[in-house]
Amino acid sequence: MIDCAMKRTPCDLVFRGGKIFNVYTGELEEKELAVANGKIVAIGEGYEGETVDCKGKVLLPGFIDAHLHVESTLLSPEAFSSLASAHGTTGIVADPHEITNVCGIEGAEYVAEAFSRLRYREVAPIDVYLQLPSCVPATPFETSGAKIDGKETAKEIAKPLFHGLGEMMNFPAVMAGEEDCLTKLIAAKEAGKTVDGHAPALSNEGLCAYLCAGIVTDHEALDAKECAEKVARGMYCQLRNGSSAKNLEENAKAMTEFNFSRFLLCSDDKNADDLYNHGHIDDALRRLVACGIPAKWAICTATRNVSECYGLRAKGALSPGFDADIAVVDDVQSFCVRAVYKNGVKVAQDGHALFDSSKRYLPQSVQNTVHVKEVAEDDFRIALKGNLVRAMKVLPHSLVTESVTATVNRKDGDVRLEGTDLCKLAVVERHFASGNIGLCLVQGYGLKGGAIGITVAHDSHNLVVLGDNNADMVRVVSLLKEAGGGMALVCGEKEEVFPLDIAGLMSSASVEEVRLHTARITKEAYRMGVKDYYEPFMTLAFLALPVIPHLKLTDRGLFDVDAFAFTSLEI
């Protein structure tokens, strides 16, 4: 490399004619970029080597997603790689929280192995920095398929498999100094590994306590004011551009010339159709620039800032000695990706991956994971003594729900939903066939004349079904049980199911098949009346997550997140 840099030896590749973005100065340099042995060896003039013509283009460091659950794409790791790579992504900080809650550590090992087996000319198209899930289960108020306590965390976090500790969602336990929670945090600290956060609406003394635990990131700030406070206290704030939840435009308002280095881009949860049609981190970059953030700040949130936050050596910059991970784009407004290089190997061209991702690694440990006790219509009855109920209302384009009061009619030991804007929501335990079913009412979702359901339900991933009649809800549960997990819809005589054969969370099918099938079943859900500001199935998947305000449902009952305790349906 030294010989190449000193022009004593020809380089492998020389990128000529383009502008190189410097993440340290914010400048576009019109120079040559020389690559040898998968590394950037020089930026200058007069280098020998195979020419890569970049005339009229801009060279950026490969994009790094700062927080991602691959499972939420519904794609296998191999299929995800082909899609993300084509959009300029060369690295992900992946938290396999979803599959680990279903399959335990074997689920995390599956994700790592599936990514590691994918090679193109001896290069892995995407670097994967795996985080050990910190909350399995997320809370003690739900039934998960696995449990990882402090003792096991201490054993696993020391392994090279894990780059850090995944998002610490149980922030009340952190603030309370709960022993098992602190055991996990101390283990990560002793291993010298980064700890991700998840702390919506946390501020003042609670935020200070959370930071004392060594947690460095957060992607759940509800508004720019909260985001600014967290940055001011030393956190990195991840701007989220997911399919169901987007806080990027709002929280970007907190960015300044002084603090922009504390912001990171992430997708968190983004489905296949969204990835295909809108892109990955390139989509987030477009959105940031469109809302007025200077391009030079925006680019750093997907490159240098992520590298510095997570200690990713030789990543996040186009500098001598760094890995030759390069995204060639048209400009720094559209961020249209024309070519992607990973360790100096071209892995994508004009929106298409150049590597074969069709072979799937699919061990027995992640198959046949849906175990549901037989259900009947009576299981979905909601018997009340009065007519006033506490209902859940989902805020548009958000994971946050409100607790609202609704008036219902009763007949034959059940609520009557005719003439209301209410639906029934049920969370059915699906790991041990225990028969646990949590029930509540949801206001304003819009669905009429049937039911929809999914076995993706953050974070314990029980079966969630929403409907306006018990019979169709029972049928949805049966379809999902028969399919071994997935997404299902029943509307009159129409039935549709899309299997998710990997832990009930992901599909082993191709990108094209996943995106087309999920898009079709989603379109059918909208035809049933689901409001267009909800993503019908993926929004549903978050209604069982008892760590995001304010009202959620688990297989054990209705949960008040603010009080961090169960609450009654009746008022």
What is the number of domains?
2
Structural class: alpha/beta
Alpha carbon gap, first and last residue: 71 Å
Helix content: 25-40%
CATH homology superfamily name of the largest domain: Metal-dependent hydrolases
Q: Order of strands in the sheet with the most strands? A: 21-20-25-24-27-26-28-29
CATH topology of the largest domain: TIM Barrel
Layout of secondary structure:
Elements: H1 2-5, E1 13-16, E2 19-21, E3 28-29, E4 32-36, E5 39-44, E6 50-53, E7 58-61, E8 63-68, H2 77-85, E9 89-94, H3 97-103, H4 105-117, E10 127-132, H5 150-157, E11 164-168, H6 171-176, H7 179-190, E12 194-197, H8 204-212, E13 217-218, H9 224-232, E14 236-240, H10 248-251, E15 263-266, H11 272-278, H12 281-290, H13 295-301, H14 304-310, E16 326-329, E17 337-342, E18 345-349, E19 352-353, E20 388-394, E21 401-407, E22 409-411, E23 414-416, E24 422-428, E25 437-443, E26 451-454, E27 463-467, H15 470-483, E28 486-491, E29 494-499, H16 511-527, H17 536-541, E30 551-554, E31 557-560, E32 565-566
Parallel strand pairs: 1-6, 2-7, 8-9, 9-10, 10-11, 11-12, 13-14, 14-15, 20-25
Antiparallel strand pairs: 1-4, 2-3, 4-5, 7-16, 16-17, 17-18, 18-19, 20-21, 22-23, 24-25, 24-27, 26-27, 26-28, 28-29, 30-31, 31-32
Outline of this structure?
The chain has 2 domains: 59-349, Metal-dependent hydrolases (TIM Barrel, Alpha-Beta Barrel); 367-566, no CATH class. The protein is 26% helix and 26% strand.
